[in-house]
Specification:
This protein has 256 residues and is of the alpha/beta class. The chain folds into 2 domains: 135 residues, 3 Solenoid (UDP N-Acetylglucosamine Acyltransferase, domain 1); 55 residues, Udp N-acetylglucosamine O-acyltransferase, Domain 2, CATH 1.20.1180.10. It is 16% helix and 27% strand. The protein has 4 helices and 27 strands. A 10-stranded mixed sheet has the order 3-6-9-12-15-18-21-24-26-27, covered by helices on one side. Strands 1-4-7-10-13-16-19-22-25 form a 9-stranded parallel sheet, with no helix packed on it. α2 runs antiparallel to α3 and α3 runs antiparallel to α4. The longest helix has 15 residues. The protein is elongated, with a radius of gyration of 20 Å.
Length: 256
Protein backbone atom coordinates (compact mmCIF):
# COMPACT_ATOMS: atom_id res chain seq x y z
CA UNK A 1 0.00 0.00 0.00
CA UNK A 2 3.04 2.25 0.45
CA UNK A 3 5.60 1.90 -2.28
CA UNK A 4 9.14 1.29 -1.02
CA UNK A 5 10.43 4.27 -3.00
CA UNK A 6 8.05 6.70 -1.26
CA UNK A 7 9.69 9.03 1.28
CA UNK A 8 7.43 9.52 4.29
CA UNK A 9 8.75 11.57 7.20
CA UNK A 10 8.56 9.58 10.45
CA UNK A 11 6.61 12.40 12.11
CA UNK A 12 3.92 12.51 9.40
CA UNK A 13 0.58 11.14 10.59
CA UNK A 14 -1.07 8.82 8.08
CA UNK A 15 -4.01 6.54 8.76
CA UNK A 16 -3.09 2.87 8.52
CA UNK A 17 -4.84 2.31 5.17
CA UNK A 18 -3.50 5.37 3.33
CA UNK A 19 -1.90 4.33 0.04
CA UNK A 20 1.23 6.15 -1.18
CA UNK A 21 2.56 5.63 -4.70
CA UNK A 22 6.07 5.36 -6.02
CA UNK A 23 8.48 8.25 -5.47
CA UNK A 24 5.96 10.36 -3.57
CA UNK A 25 7.21 12.55 -0.72
CA UNK A 26 5.23 13.23 2.48
CA UNK A 27 6.57 15.94 4.78
CA UNK A 28 6.94 16.13 8.54
CA UNK A 29 3.81 18.14 9.36
CA UNK A 30 1.38 16.29 7.10
CA UNK A 31 -1.74 14.50 8.35
CA UNK A 32 -3.76 12.23 6.02
CA UNK A 33 -7.04 10.53 6.89
CA UNK A 34 -8.32 7.02 6.28
CA UNK A 35 -9.02 5.73 2.80
CA UNK A 36 -7.01 8.38 0.97
CA UNK A 37 -4.97 7.27 -2.04
CA UNK A 38 -1.82 9.20 -3.01
CA UNK A 39 -0.54 8.49 -6.52
CA UNK A 40 3.09 8.34 -7.69
CA UNK A 41 5.37 11.38 -7.82
CA UNK A 42 3.18 13.46 -5.48
CA UNK A 43 4.75 15.95 -3.04
CA UNK A 44 2.76 16.85 0.08
CA UNK A 45 4.58 19.37 2.22
CA UNK A 46 4.05 22.00 4.89
CA UNK A 47 1.43 22.03 7.63
CA UNK A 48 -1.12 20.13 5.58
CA UNK A 49 -4.16 18.19 6.74
CA UNK A 50 -6.00 15.96 4.27
CA UNK A 51 -9.22 14.22 5.27
CA UNK A 52 -10.67 10.84 4.42
CA UNK A 53 -11.26 9.04 1.11
CA UNK A 54 -9.50 11.51 -1.16
CA UNK A 55 -7.80 10.45 -4.37
CA UNK A 56 -4.75 12.48 -5.38
CA UNK A 57 -3.22 11.74 -8.77
CA UNK A 58 0.38 11.90 -9.93
CA UNK A 59 2.59 14.99 -10.01
CA UNK A 60 0.48 17.08 -7.60
CA UNK A 61 2.20 19.52 -5.24
CA UNK A 62 0.13 20.19 -2.12
CA UNK A 63 1.05 22.36 0.86
CA UNK A 64 4.02 24.13 -0.66
CA UNK A 65 4.83 27.67 0.52
CA UNK A 66 2.75 30.50 -0.98
CA UNK A 67 3.87 32.41 -4.03
CA UNK A 68 3.85 35.65 -2.07
CA UNK A 69 6.91 37.85 -1.52
CA UNK A 70 5.64 38.77 1.95
CA UNK A 71 5.85 35.17 3.12
CA UNK A 72 8.52 34.78 5.81
CA UNK A 73 8.40 31.07 6.68
CA UNK A 74 5.41 31.34 9.02
CA UNK A 75 3.76 27.95 9.78
CA UNK A 76 0.64 28.58 7.71
CA UNK A 77 -1.64 25.73 6.65
CA UNK A 78 -3.46 23.85 3.92
CA UNK A 79 -6.63 21.95 4.84
CA UNK A 80 -8.43 19.56 2.48
CA UNK A 81 -11.68 17.84 3.42
CA UNK A 82 -13.09 14.43 2.46
CA UNK A 83 -14.00 12.62 -0.76
CA UNK A 84 -12.15 14.95 -3.12
CA UNK A 85 -10.68 13.94 -6.46
CA UNK A 86 -7.55 15.92 -7.32
CA UNK A 87 -6.25 15.11 -10.77
CA UNK A 88 -2.77 15.34 -12.27
CA UNK A 89 -0.36 18.23 -11.70
CA UNK A 90 -2.51 20.35 -9.38
CA UNK A 91 -0.83 22.84 -7.04
CA UNK A 92 -2.34 24.01 -3.74
CA UNK A 93 -0.35 26.45 -1.58
CA UNK A 94 -0.58 27.18 2.15
CA UNK A 95 -1.99 30.47 3.47
CA UNK A 96 -0.35 33.67 4.65
CA UNK A 97 -0.45 35.50 7.96
CA UNK A 98 -1.75 38.57 6.16
CA UNK A 99 -5.05 36.68 5.77
CA UNK A 100 -6.56 33.78 7.73
CA UNK A 101 -3.35 31.78 7.41
CA UNK A 102 -5.13 28.74 5.96
CA UNK A 103 -5.95 27.68 2.42
CA UNK A 104 -9.07 25.49 2.57
CA UNK A 105 -10.61 22.98 0.19
CA UNK A 106 -13.91 21.49 1.34
CA UNK A 107 -15.34 18.06 0.53
CA UNK A 108 -16.71 16.24 -2.50
CA UNK A 109 -14.87 18.47 -4.96
CA UNK A 110 -13.78 17.39 -8.45
CA UNK A 111 -10.52 19.16 -9.26
CA UNK A 112 -9.25 18.48 -12.77
CA UNK A 113 -5.68 18.55 -14.06
CA UNK A 114 -3.35 21.56 -13.77
CA UNK A 115 -5.58 23.51 -11.37
CA UNK A 116 -3.80 26.06 -9.16
CA UNK A 117 -5.27 27.07 -5.78
CA UNK A 118 -3.19 29.93 -4.38
CA UNK A 119 -2.63 31.04 -0.80
CA UNK A 120 -5.63 31.77 1.43
CA UNK A 121 -8.22 30.53 -1.06
CA UNK A 122 -11.43 29.17 0.46
CA UNK A 123 -13.11 26.56 -1.74
CA UNK A 124 -16.45 25.12 -0.67
CA UNK A 125 -18.04 21.72 -1.27
CA UNK A 126 -19.23 19.89 -4.39
CA UNK A 127 -17.39 22.23 -6.75
CA UNK A 128 -15.94 21.36 -10.16
CA UNK A 129 -12.78 23.19 -11.21
CA UNK A 130 -12.08 22.14 -14.79
CA UNK A 131 -8.65 21.74 -16.35
CA UNK A 132 -6.23 24.66 -15.92
CA UNK A 133 -8.52 26.72 -13.70
CA UNK A 134 -6.31 29.22 -11.88
CA UNK A 135 -7.29 30.79 -8.54
CA UNK A 136 -5.19 33.72 -7.36
CA UNK A 137 -4.70 34.48 -3.68
CA UNK A 138 -7.59 35.15 -1.29
CA UNK A 139 -10.28 33.85 -3.70
CA UNK A 140 -13.52 32.39 -2.31
CA UNK A 141 -15.52 29.76 -4.22
CA UNK A 142 -19.05 28.82 -3.10
CA UNK A 143 -20.61 25.37 -2.96
CA UNK A 144 -21.57 23.66 -6.25
CA UNK A 145 -19.71 26.25 -8.35
CA UNK A 146 -18.48 24.98 -11.73
CA UNK A 147 -15.57 26.82 -13.30
CA UNK A 148 -14.92 25.96 -16.93
CA UNK A 149 -11.50 25.06 -18.28
CA UNK A 150 -8.88 27.82 -18.25
CA UNK A 151 -11.02 30.06 -16.02
CA UNK A 152 -8.82 32.64 -14.30
CA UNK A 153 -9.92 34.29 -11.06
CA UNK A 154 -8.28 37.52 -9.86
CA UNK A 155 -7.11 37.81 -6.27
CA UNK A 156 -9.77 38.65 -3.63
CA UNK A 157 -12.64 37.78 -6.01
CA UNK A 158 -15.65 35.96 -4.55
CA UNK A 159 -17.54 33.38 -6.62
CA UNK A 160 -21.02 32.51 -5.43
CA UNK A 161 -22.68 29.13 -5.01
CA UNK A 162 -24.21 27.31 -8.00
CA UNK A 163 -22.50 29.46 -10.63
CA UNK A 164 -21.05 28.17 -13.89
CA UNK A 165 -18.43 29.81 -16.09
CA UNK A 166 -17.54 29.12 -19.68
CA UNK A 167 -14.14 28.13 -21.01
CA UNK A 168 -11.39 30.76 -20.69
CA UNK A 169 -13.48 33.07 -18.52
CA UNK A 170 -11.56 35.84 -16.73
CA UNK A 171 -13.13 36.96 -13.44
CA UNK A 172 -11.93 40.34 -12.24
CA UNK A 173 -15.01 41.06 -10.09
CA UNK A 174 -17.31 39.04 -7.85
CA UNK A 175 -19.72 36.62 -9.51
CA UNK A 176 -23.06 36.35 -7.65
CA UNK A 177 -24.71 33.01 -6.82
CA UNK A 178 -26.69 31.17 -9.51
CA UNK A 179 -25.26 33.16 -12.44
CA UNK A 180 -23.98 31.71 -15.71
CA UNK A 181 -21.13 33.81 -17.07
CA UNK A 182 -18.31 33.72 -19.59
CA UNK A 183 -15.82 35.80 -21.54
CA UNK A 184 -12.96 38.24 -21.10
CA UNK A 185 -14.10 40.58 -19.78
CA UNK A 186 -16.61 38.32 -18.08
CA UNK A 187 -20.30 38.97 -18.78
CA UNK A 188 -23.48 37.39 -17.33
CA UNK A 189 -25.67 35.18 -19.54
CA UNK A 190 -28.60 34.17 -17.35
CA UNK A 191 -28.82 31.71 -14.47
CA UNK A 192 -27.55 28.16 -14.10
CA UNK A 193 -31.08 26.77 -14.44
CA UNK A 194 -30.08 23.26 -15.50
CA UNK A 195 -27.70 22.90 -12.57
CA UNK A 196 -30.38 24.07 -10.16
CA UNK A 197 -32.87 21.51 -11.54
CA UNK A 198 -30.32 18.74 -11.05
CA UNK A 199 -29.86 19.80 -7.42
CA UNK A 200 -33.57 19.65 -6.65
CA UNK A 201 -34.58 23.30 -6.84
CA UNK A 202 -38.30 23.56 -7.53
CA UNK A 203 -39.74 25.33 -10.56
CA UNK A 204 -41.01 28.08 -8.26
CA UNK A 205 -37.56 28.59 -6.75
CA UNK A 206 -35.93 28.76 -10.18
CA UNK A 207 -38.52 31.29 -11.32
CA UNK A 208 -37.79 33.43 -8.24
CA UNK A 209 -34.05 33.30 -9.01
CA UNK A 210 -34.73 34.27 -12.64
CA UNK A 211 -36.79 37.23 -11.43
CA UNK A 212 -33.96 38.35 -9.16
CA UNK A 213 -31.49 37.97 -12.03
CA UNK A 214 -33.65 40.22 -14.23
CA UNK A 215 -33.86 42.75 -11.41
CA UNK A 216 -30.08 42.79 -11.06
CA UNK A 217 -29.13 42.70 -14.74
CA UNK A 218 -32.08 43.70 -16.93
CA UNK A 219 -34.15 46.28 -15.04
CA UNK A 220 -31.89 49.29 -15.51
CA UNK A 221 -31.80 49.86 -11.76
CA UNK A 222 -28.66 51.05 -10.03
CA UNK A 223 -26.77 48.42 -8.07
CA UNK A 224 -28.03 49.74 -4.73
CA UNK A 225 -31.64 49.92 -5.94
CA UNK A 226 -31.41 46.41 -7.40
CA UNK A 227 -30.08 45.10 -4.07
CA UNK A 228 -33.01 46.67 -2.24
CA UNK A 229 -35.51 45.21 -4.70
CA UNK A 230 -34.04 41.72 -4.40
CA UNK A 231 -34.08 41.99 -0.62
CA UNK A 232 -37.82 42.72 -0.85
CA UNK A 233 -38.31 39.70 -3.12
CA UNK A 234 -36.46 37.52 -0.63
CA UNK A 235 -39.28 37.92 1.91
CA UNK A 236 -41.36 35.52 -0.21
CA UNK A 237 -38.48 33.57 -1.77
CA UNK A 238 -36.00 32.23 0.82
CA UNK A 239 -33.78 30.77 -1.93
CA UNK A 240 -32.71 34.35 -2.61
CA UNK A 241 -31.02 34.67 0.79
CA UNK A 242 -27.60 33.55 -0.54
CA UNK A 243 -27.84 36.19 -3.27
CA UNK A 244 -28.88 38.90 -0.80
CA UNK A 245 -26.00 37.99 1.54
CA UNK A 246 -23.49 37.90 -1.31
CA UNK A 247 -24.45 41.31 -2.67
CA UNK A 248 -24.24 42.79 0.82
CA UNK A 249 -20.59 41.76 1.32
CA UNK A 250 -19.21 42.22 -2.21
CA UNK A 251 -16.29 44.66 -2.13
CA UNK A 252 -14.84 44.42 -5.64
CA UNK A 253 -18.14 45.06 -7.42
CA UNK A 254 -19.92 42.33 -9.32
CA UNK A 255 -19.77 41.04 -12.88
CA UNK A 256 -22.55 43.10 -14.44
Amino acid sequence: MRHPTALIHPNARLADDVEVGAYSIIGEHVEIGAGTVIGPHVVINGHTRIGQHNRIFQFCSLGEIPQDKKYANEPTRLEIGDHNTIRESCTFNTGTVQDVGVTRMGSHNWIMAYVHVAHDCQVGNHTILANCTQLAGHVEIGDYAILGGFTGVHQFVKVGAHVITGVSTVLLQDLPPYVLASGNPCAPHGINAEGLKRRGFSSASIMAIKRAYKTLYKSGLSFDDAKSAIQSQQAESPELQPLVDFLAISQRGIVR
